[in-house]
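Possible regression after last week's pipeline update?

I re-ran a chain I had predicted before the update to compare outputs. Posting the input and the new output here so someone can diff against the archived version. Not blocking, just want to make sure nothing changed silently.
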Amino acid sequence: MNKPYFIAEISSNHNNSLSRIKKLIASAKQSGFDAVKFQVFKIKELFHRNVLNKSKLHRDREKWELNLNYLEQIRRECNKNKIELGFTPFYLEAVDVLEKYADFYKIASYELLWIDLIKKCAKKNKKLIISTGMANMQEVEKAYKSATKYLNKNKLSFLHCVSSYPASYKQCNLSSIKTLRSNFKCRVGWSDHTTDKDVIIRAVNYWNADEIEMHFDIDGNGFEANVGHCWLPKDCYDLINTIRKNELMDGLDGKKPSDVEKLERNWRADPRDGLRPLLKIRNKI
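New output (post-update):
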């Protein structure tokens, strides 16, 4: 019975508002997520100065930076809502800053080649998730070896994803989940950029994804929401509820009477005369 771990990727949809952050955390919990995740970056340590000098679009993303003064309150809100908290650090010092607040770290696809970041996260001995968008197998293998040098493989996850925003269902290549699982001894899942419920259901029910990450917003007004790859609460609730129902439908392997059938077993036809109920029960009526 597959029980995927659902992560609400808040990304920069917090709009640097503490009240909005609290709503996002509460809404993610109500929608059925197991965890929320925030990105922690500084624009000047994310993009080279040549990019920032030439691109106002990239310079303007400075307003997307999470206010680190909120970290204590974010942790409290997650505790209050009984939901786990993860972070994607985009500079080395952030790994240390986040250590006391994080249940897990995530390496973004664009940082997969940065082995120093992978190693620093792995050394913290927390759960580590690595997104594999754009990567080939050699690059993923190098990331795996770098992480598992310091971290037990049971704490490592790879998420297959397509680094397109948004991505089409035709581009998903979900069979890569099987490829990753066959080659690496760790949990494997899907990081979604499609907002297509059929993709998520396929990833879970057919490819047995252990973890699902979905970009999450509460109202479509988040800084990243207009890109087209973010999910809203009702759609998340409906989807996750369907998948949780599927878990219950599947039940356990084997064939034996269920609890609700036990009384009815007495009312089967007796093999001696074909009449109901069983002879031993008739004699007690």
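Follow-up from reviewer: compared with the archived run. The chain has two domains: 5-254, 256-285. Marking as no regression found.
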